[in-house]
Design goal:
alpha+beta; Arc Repressor Mutant, subunit A; three-stranded antiparallel sheet; 18 helices; 51% helix; disordered N terminus; RepB family plasmid replication initiator protein
């Protein structure tokens, strides 16, 4: 590697800014309505717990996230008594809470935690096939929490401390398959009445920034019905859904760093203006820094996929993947082609053959970053 080349830095110099950024598994970002469908009245709390654990993970070097319920409440804006009371589903006594070794997971907080650990979240999507009349349903299952520890004094059982280990797949995606959002903005856009709906919409818009950067544009044209589904807007009349959606979007534009203008327009064949256009402030997209992050994520996906295709029997072996990466001559043409393609997609620029050294620097920086994150994970 060229000793004079400047390394790619992914942690900002400002520590507070780094702490504010939260990585969220991109599978969850793509399937926000599935969380609502699976957790129903607990969906907002479940999503906030996921965000909290993902935020805590970045400062946890030993694999476990440790906190008291007051820590969660202080950061995420909850009141402890509301989370420690018996969950409504158990109040009538007809349904018994899950119990392990005499410990009942019956509070609002602990029952939601238990569900995040005991049940993998099904994430679904419909995909097109090569046959126009055929569609394919894809369902993947994500485990958020793999281990739970609850510590308390038997004389003061209401004061509890929790320790969690995140699911392996979830952790791997926090490293390589994620979207980034601002915790400050995520909390700031919330309102008491519609906080869960607006937070969902914020997550979607924050995650779509990479799509804007990838396409080298600041204009997003999301599907109207998709946005309504993400924000759980269920009004019968389209004009009422439009009014509510506009209100939520304006809340986000006014109270977060996602600065954008909202335009509704009528597409060809539409009688009313129900198509939507969001025009983002280019200066707020942080294009260069995000392009570097996008480059790393795309490169990781493409290289891992190439390794899995070459050696399907070792698709879960990080050490062999690392050896394959660091062997300069093995599959050299394949690696070079992947780096060139990803660089072009991320930075909208071609690399000439005379820039091979620069491309090798990028691969070296990627391997260095991968090793550092793997050490933290272990």
């Amino acid at each position: 590697m060229n000793s004079k080349s400047e390394p790619l830095v992914f942690i900002p110099n400002n520590a507070q800014e780094w702490l504010d950024r939260v990585r969220l598994d991109r599978n969850l970002f793509y399937n926000l309505p599935d969380i609502q469908r699976n957790f129903k009245e607990d969906a907002t709390l479940a999503r906030d717990i996921i965000i909290f654990l993902a935020h805590s993970y970045k400062t946890d070097l030993f694999g476990y996230t440790n906190f008291g319920i007051n820590d969660f409440c202080k950061l995420m804006g909850y009141k402890s008594p509301n989370l420690q009371k018996t969950h409504p589903v158990f109040e009538a006594g007809m349904i018994k809470p899950p119990t392990l070794l005499g410990h009942e997971f019956k509070s609002v907080f602990e029952y939601t935690l238990y569900r995040l650990a005991a049940n993998n979240i099904p994430l679904s999507r419909i995909e097109k096939t090569q046959i126009p009349s055929m569609k394919e349903l894809n369902v993947s299952f994500v485990q958020i929490i793999s281990d739970i520890r609850v510590s308390y004094n038997v004389n003061r059982p209401q004061k509890r401390f929790y320790s969690f280990k995140l699911g392996r797949g979830f952790v791997e995606n926090l490293i390589s398959f994620y979207v980034t959002l601002s915790l400050k903005d995520y909390l700031r856009v919330a309102s008491n009445k519609n906080s869960g709906r607006i937070k969902n919409l914020y997550i979607y818009l924050a995650g779509m920034q990479n799509v804007l950067i990838y396409n080298n544009t600041n204009v997003l044209t999301p599907n109207f019905d998709l946005l309504c589904e993400i924000a759980n807007i269920e009004d019968q009349l389209p004009k009422h859904r439009k009014f509510t959606l506009h209100k939520y979007l304006k809340n986000i534009a006014d109270n977060s760093d996602l600065k954008f203008q909202i335009e509704f327009f009528a597409e060809k064949g539409q009688k009313q203006a129900y198509s939507i256009r969001l025009i983002f402030d280019s200066s707020q997209l942080h294009l260069e820094g995000n392009k570097k992050n996008l480059f790393f994520k795309l490169l990781n996906e493409r290289l891992r996929q190439a390794f899995d295709d070459q050696f399907p029997q070792y698709d879960d072996n990080f050490e062999l993947f690392q050896q394959w990466l660091t062997n300069r001559e093995y599959d050299k043409e394949l690696k070079d082609r992947i780096i060139r393609d990803v660089y072009k997609a991320s930075f909208m620029s071609e690399h000439e053959k005379t820039e091979d050294l620069s491309l090798q620097d990028l691969l070296d920086s990627y391997i260095k970053n991968l090793n550092e994150e793997k050490q933290e994970d272990s």
